[in-house]
Amino acid sequence: MIAVDTNVLVRILADDPGQPVQVATARTLASEARQVFVPTIVQVETVWVLESGYRLPKATVIEALEHLELNQAFVQENPDACRCALALFRTTNADYSDCLILTGCRHRSITLHTFDKRLSKIEGATPVPASR
Q1: Could you read off the pLDDT of 27-71 as tens digits, one per residue?
Q2: CA–CA separation, 96 vs 92, rounded Å?
Q3: Beta-carbon contacts of residue 66 (< 8 Å; ≥ 6 apart)
Q4: Domain limits, the chain
Q5: Which end of the chain is more exposed for a tag (fewer CB within 10 A), N or C?
């Protein structure tokens, strides 16, 4: 088993026409290792890169996250939290990172207070008024 950083995971998951050598190298590395450990922060950063850098639609990002969840070649650092966060991400307008944060709070039965209007609409989160 090997661990990868965000740059390598992105190259494994996304066809980057500007980086064909890196894509091939990353995929070969993963294939030869047989299992790839994915730290949670790497998964969060990968979603951000896919959305912001590659401008991939949410449906495609969800497919990438499902691939990480279902493909036994990938070992997520916190698979239960990632699974719950993915379920929230699929059904809400919240960012994936916020879904993961909320998942952690829910697991601990702690209400998440936020200024984020989208996030505050999800069960387990509550809006913080702009002025108190």
Answers
A1: 999 999 999 999 999 999 999 999 999 999 999 999 999 999 999
A2: 10
A3: 86
A4: 1-77, 79-132
A5: C
